[in-house]
Design brief:
Blueprint: H1 2-32, H2 42-54, E1 61-62, H3 72-82, H4 94-107, H5 117-126, H6 135-149, H7 152-162, E2 164-166, E3 169-170, H8 172-180, H9 189-198, H10 202-207, H11 212-224
Parallel strand pairs: 1-3
Antiparallel strand pairs: 2-3
Helix pairs in contact: 1-6, 3-9, 5-6, 5-7, 9-11
């Protein structure tokens, strides 16, 4: 009985130690990325594995560009579409989460998300697409780390460079060239609004670029862009 109790507490100590090591690993990456650009993300690697399972020669379309070389139109459009309170909140939009919960409850399915740009970045950088009971907790912890260590400018710069924008298309520069044959710095308001409207379902909209819902949402985003402030 005493032996079993000792084994139990030893096991608990090992689990706690592993959790702490994992948190330190996450913290180390967040600290590193305050100064250095990520060359990939967990989500990018997962998507590449899927693409290469179908075609061994498949590659991602991805090129990092500095924040200053991304059109102000795209910055405004993405914030207008994904997280209007980005500059005000500390990682979580509680009111937005409540609104999304009520919409989903009313429809009986997930039709809205309440994730902020910071939460989306946390998920993309570190977590796979698999849904696990502890994934939201991991996402929240990483979000807190980023919000306390990185500036809003840096969070948004990384976000614009790593999010998915089509089938194998990642980041603003690759998206601008994939859809419009130009650099991210040259996107006009209409183009930027359409790209921002694609963010929630990029692979579908890559194949359905004139979808009526996409075009309608792009028009709404474009009308909101003039009221948006972006990190400087």
């Amino acid at each position: 009985m005493v032996l079993n109790r000792r084994f139990f507490w030893r096991l608990v100590a090992i689990v706690i130690g592993l959790v702490l090591c994992y948190q330190l690993w996450l913290l180390g990456h967040v600290l590193w990325w305050t100064q250095y650009n990520p060359s990939s993300s967990a989500f990018m690697e997962a998507r590449l594995d899927i693409l290469q399972s179908k075609d061994p020669d498949a590659e991602l379309h991805y090129k990092w560009v500095p924040y200053e070389k991304i059109s102000i139109n795209l910055k405004r459009a993405v914030i207008a579409s994904e997280d209007a309170k980005f500059l005000q909140h500390e990682g979580f939009d509680w009111e937005g989460m409540q609104t999304a919960w009520e919409k989903n409850l009313k429809k009986g399915k997930i039709v809205a998300g309440g994730s902020t740009i910071s939460q989306q970045l946390a998920k993309n950088l570190f977590l796979s697409g698999k849904r696990t009971p502890w994934r939201k907790a991991e996402e929240a912890m990483i979000t807190i780390m980023m919000e306390n260590i990185m500036s809003k400018h840096r969070i948004f710069e990384i976000y614009l460079n790593v999010i998915e924008w089509g089938d194998g298309v990642f980041g603003a520069e690759a998206a601008a060239r994939h859809y419009y044959g130009k650099s991210a710095s040259r996107l006009n308001a209409s183009e930027a609004a359409k790209l921002a409207a694609m963010v929630p379902n990029p692979r579908y909209y890559d194949a359905h670029r004139n979808d009526r819902r996409l075009l309608r949402k792009a028009r709404i985003i474009q009308r909101r862009m003039g009221y948006v402030q972006v990190p400087r």
